[in-house]
Amino acid sequence: MAQLLLGAIRACTSEISAPANVFEPWDGTWKGRFLVKDSRGEILTELDVTQRYWSESPDLQRAEFSERNVKTGEVTTAKAKNTREAGRLICRVEKSNGEKVEHTGRWTGRGIEWKRDVAETHELFLETITTSTSGETV
To answer: How much is the pTM?
Structure first.
């Protein structure tokens, strides 16, 4: 089973053009545990997540998520839309609890770096797809 790897990274200054089908490598179903950490690296939240992605065109990908808070057991579902608009990568998420989130992204050459800066919230994460030594996509 494949897992989506998310990790905090430092922002790079150079811009790299995203490939034509930038979202397509993520098409499929991903399951794993996401750790939400503060700026000191301390774990704030652990989520067991299932995400399903499908591309509708080279510039449009949709997704459905389900995440369960490991500590509280609370389950949140979401629908997302990833788009390329005027050369920019945008991820819009609508959660079942009413929360709406928008991330802007950029292609790093090895994945998509997503960020969101709203009020006191500053998120930065990198989504990459790699192949293990056994040939499994992780």
So the answer is: 0.75
Strands laid side by side in the 121-128 sheet: 5-7, 121-128, 111-118, 100-107, 88-95, 75-85, 60-69, 43-57, 28-37
Least confident of 90-94, 107-111, 132-136: 132-136
64: amino acid identity, one letter: E
**Residue position matching structure tokens 């459905």:** 64
Can you tell me the distance from the alpha carbon of 113 to that of 10, in angstroms, rounded to the nearest whole number?
A: 10
Closest CA to 113 of 2, 3, 10: 10
Q: Which of 100, 101, 32 lies closest to 67, judged by CA?
A: 32
